[in-house]
Amino acid sequence: MAVKTVHVHLKVNGKDVELDVPPNERLIDTLRYRLKLTSVKEGCGRGECGICIVLVNGLPRHSCLTLTAAIDGAEITTLEGLAPEGKIHAIQMAFLETRGVQCGYCTQGFIMMAKALLDKTLDPSYEEIKEWLSSTLCRCGSYHYYFAAVKLAAKYIKEGKIYFDEEEVKKKYYMRVVGR
Question: Which fold has domain 87-178?
Answer without folding.
Answer: DNA polymerase; domain 1 (1.10.150)
